[in-house]
Design a protein that fits this description.
This protein is α/β, with parallel strands linked by helices. The protein has 5 helices and 5 strands. It has helices spanning about 10-25, 35-40, 60-70, 90-95, 110-120, and strands at about 5-10, 30, 50, 80-85, 100-105. Strands 2-1-3-4-5 form a 5-stranded parallel beta sheet, sandwiched between helices. The radius of gyration is 13 Å and the shape is globular.
Length: about 120
């Protein structure tokens, strides 16, 4: 059975690029356009991993991670931040919120898939 990954980013073109890489590797993909939409997609179905941007309208990635970690059903879901933010302050905030990996844009699909395969248990 395919593992499901939620991609949350306000850039439709970035979501598409990530989706192509992930579906090509055999993952099933759900998309959210911002933090609020991403949270709404966590509706009880099994999601094995979340990939999120930091800077988004309505709710930013760090706030969304904090909200996900409050939800008992998704508390242990690994989260990768895929963002242009490379500052250590922001990375610390992410880590404190529960982010497991940080991939800086522009990214190489192989690099992201490696991070994904390390965080998704077989």
């Amino acid at each position: 059975m395919a593992k499901t990954i939620l991609i949350v980013d306000d850039s439709a073109s970035l979501r598409t690029a990530v989706k192509i890489a992930l579906t090509g590797a055999g993952y099933e993909v759900i998309e959210g356009c911002d933090g609020r939409d991403g949270l709404a997609k966590l509706d009880g179905r099994k999601v094995h991993l979340v990939i999120s941007d930091v800077n988004m309208p309505n709710m930013d990635g760090i706030s969304m991670v904090q909200a996900i970690k409050q939800n008992p059903a998704y508390k242990f879901t690994p989260i990768i931040m895929l963002t242009t933010e490379a500052g250590s302050d922001m990375m610390e905030k992410g880590k404190a919120a529960g982010v497991k990996a940080w991939v800086v844009k522009p990214f190489k699909p192989e690099q992201m898939l490696q991070a994904v395969s390390k965080l998704i248990l077989p």
